[in-house]
Amino acid sequence: MSEAMGLKGKLGLNVFKEDKAFHISIKNGCEKDARLKKAIYACPAGLYSENENGEVVLSGDGCLECGNCFVACGSEVLEWRYPSGGSGVQFRFG
Amino acid sequence: MESQGESFDALIVGGGLAGLAAAYTMAAEGLEVLLLERGDYCGAKNVTGGRIYINPVRELFPELWKKAPLERPIVHEEVCLMGRKSSITMRYDGAELKAEPYQSYSLLRGKFDKWLAREAERKGAMIVTKSRVDALIIEDGRVKGVMAGGEELRADVVVAADGVLSFTARQAGLQKPIDSKNYALGFKEIIELDPEIIEDRFNLNGNEGAARLFMGDATAGKFGGGFIYTNQSSLSLGMVVGVDALTENPDIKAPDLLDRFRERPELARLIKGGETVEYSAHLIPEGGFKAMGELWGDGILVAGDAAGFSMNIGVTVRGMEYALASGYYAARAVIQAKQKNDFTRAGLAIYADLLNESFVMKDFINFKESLEVLDYPRLFKHYPELAGSIMKDLYQVPDGPKDKIYATLKKYLTMSEIGGLLKLGRRMMKI
């Protein structure tokens, strides 16, 4: 529907193929790093959030592989690579 | 020992427009080309807003455009200045936009890239999908091939067409360090609608298409803009926002920004009854000339987004033509280097010459100040609001006497406002 369907619903429309392991991870000890908090606002798939301990947590479901978190936060706080061949999001329209 | 397995004339990393243009052009000249694409098919990882401008690349691929799976020729241009509770839309119709050959088309990369890959294969290029390049093979400072899925693949030259983050060009030391101010996030929904409904709502005749851009409150005043492009039976609705604009003084998360935009009454009416079928996002390297790294090295050429060939000049955000053209010139450079069997940095320097003589580098040099000029908060916050306020007062008939028009204008266009506009004018003179 054209009515806002919620982010989960929107991501559910995409074709995703699971990878052996998720391709992005937060570097050890960086969970509370101020740079990482930018990802909460930058990620178009809403995969980053802050838990009650003030740590940023990353969900591995629905990544659009744009790289915005990597550019916004930097390689000092994030381990970032593309998913292995034939995994991850497969855009049908793009 | 050195070459276990096959060796190719050229290895191309990435099956987007730059990589496919390079594969197509080299294969047409009989070179042995292998292109590696990490998606299930070419286009699976690619996203456009979007539209492509054909004119600058028409002659580079004379056989292609007649059969290309493009969506609609864009013959109506609209720009909308959005205030919080107002909007002013300007529609441009020009005879030249309606005349063939059309200057631009809406398109969907899932369809277009898949098709271009088949065309490249028909020319003899070998394309392997579902294959991620993990690293370059570099020996004595010279690129010799790539590692992909544990396999070693060698070639005389590697074309890094692996997109905006280009881990291969980065490994080769050709990239500048990533600076977030040089990137923007583009994200959008594909909303399916009947063609007749699209034509009706956008005032289109038959297969005509429209582009509509939105400035101001569309992005909550953040550096960027919203867009709608009409495809054959869908709309591309989304926005481009500077990465820093999303993260400095954060007040709204990216996905909410898009929802806020699509719920505007100006948009709600256009997409009513449509069905969202995909949600996608991609980064745009819009730093332009100043953000570019090296375009080539020993045994390697960089093309497309990987080379930073995207540009934001306000009402046009372009990249795909530069990708196609740089892929084409990369191929021409490889073809010439092969004749002399010299794939060193010196032998491949012809790539820079070809780009410098073409529209690609001429555009990037002409518009090298573009990003700094446009990244001006007043343009996205203040002026769309101001324009709306003036229109509101001009149109309003109050219950008492109406102010004189001059008095209305004077109320808004104070001396300091005019001073600001003059300053803006001076900024704009740089682009």
Give a description of the structure.
The complex is a heterodimer of chains A (94) and B (431). Chain A has three helices and six strands, in the order H-E-E-H-E-E-H-E-E. Chain A has 94 residues and is an alpha+beta fold. Chain A has a single domain, classed as Alpha-Beta Plaits (2-Layer Sandwich), CATH 3.30.70.20. In chain A, the strands form three sheets. Chain A has a two-stranded antiparallel ribbon with strand order 1-6. In chain A, strand 3 and strand 4 form a beta hairpin. With 431 residues, chain B is α/β, with parallel strands linked by helices. Chain B has three domains: 201 residues, FAD/NAD(P)-binding domain, CATH 3.50.50.60; 105 residues, D-Amino Acid Oxidase, Chain A, domain 2; 55 residues. Chain B is 34% helix and 26% strand. Chain B contains 16 helices and 19 strands. In chain B, the strands form four sheets. In chain B, strands 1, 2, 7, 8, 9, 10, 16 and 17 form an eight-stranded mixed β-sheet that branches. In chain B, a hairpin with a 7-residue loop joins strand 12 and strand 13. The longest helix of chain B is centred in the last third of the chain and has 21 residues. Chain B is globular and about 85 Å long. The interface between A and B is large, with 41 and 59 residues.
